[in-house]
Specification:
By secondary structure, the chain is of the alpha/beta class. It is 41% helix and 16% strand. The chain binds ribulose-5-phosphate (5RP). The site of ribulose-5-phosphate (5RP) has 15 residues, from β10 and α10.
């Protein structure tokens, strides 16, 4: 792997091999998502605890202070909104040149395995990896499931993650599922997990992160379960404790409730 690409990736996946990415790119197809209506307000208190943030260029430009110096994972695919039945009709909507100009640490694109536009999304990924390799920019492939959340089983996600890696993605974002270790085993690049829709309790989301790490995920790229929590800062601190300090969900829950970090 070229030095520049490794260096960018190392800003996201930290020296312990793990990462807490804060996902806030939802507006690119969902519009003003609950609790992300004013991105700057949502993001600012969380930035000190995020190893990277995943956002669109619109949010980078309008809502992230350049001096915050937080690594940016730039969402560069899009083209369908939640009002469309088929969410898979995406293209690359932000150029590699723009990603470099914004000093992104990686670019992210969704692939839609088994969906109407599977082929286009995979060709998009291949091209993006070629362009990324030219300038030293890592590519994160997101194994999107559209509206069909029931697709999130190890067989489907294993297939999607492996294909993403075969196309050259440098890391992959997917969903946690039963038998997640099988998804990890058959994917030769690092995996991070999304949180998905807000779970009933904070402990449920902490459990998800804990199980994912136990089964080999390199970290999380979590959004709604952090910023839709009643205590977003406590929640991201709890997730950090699980990902970077091997805390248990119960220990992490103390942080969500306002306790002090371990050590
Ligand atoms: C949308 C995305 C989101 O970033 C992803 O869903 C992560 O956020 P959450 O934890 O809220 O699910 O990639 O395609």
């Amino acid at each position: 792997m070229p030095w520049g690409l490794q260096n960018r990736l190392a800003r996201i996946i930290r020296s312990d091999g793990h990462t807490v990415m804060l996902a806030a790119d939802h507006g690119y197809f969902l519009g003003p998502t609950h609790k992300l209506e004013i991105p700057r307000k949502t993001l600012e208190p969380l930035l000190p605890f995020a190893d990277a943030i995943m956002v669109t260029r619109g949010v980078v430009r309008t809502s992230v202070d350049p001096a915050a110096n937080v690594p940016i994972v730039l969402r560069v695919s899009g083209g369908a909104s939640v009002l469309n039945e088929d969410l898979s009709n995406e293209k690359v909507t932000t150029s590699m040149k723009e990603a470099v100009r914004l000093n992104a640490s990686a670019v992210a694109l969704s692939i839609f395995i088994g969906a109407a536009h599977e082929h286009d999304s995979l060709v998009n990924l291949g091209k993006l990896v070629d362009e990324g390799e030219e300038v030293g920019m890592p590519v994160l492939a997101v194994t999107a499931v559209g509206k069909e959340l029931e697709k999130r089983d190890a067989r489907y996600l294993g297939l999607a993650c492996r294909i993403a890696a075969e196309f050259g993605a440098h890391f992959v974002k997917t969903y946690f599922c039963e038998d997640f270790s099988k998804v990890v085993e058959s994917c030769p690049v690092p995996l991070v997990v999304a949180g998905g829709p807000k779970l009933e309790t904070e402990l449920d989301a902490l459990d998800l992160a804990y199980e994912a790490i136990q089964e080999g995920a390199r970290g999380v790229d979590m959004g709604r379960n952090i910023w839709q929590s009643s205590n977003p800062v406590g929640m991201i601190r709890g997730i950090r404790a699980i990902v970077h300090e091997r805390s248990t969900p119960k220990e992490a829950l103390d942080l969500v409730k306002g306790g002090k970090p371990k050590k």
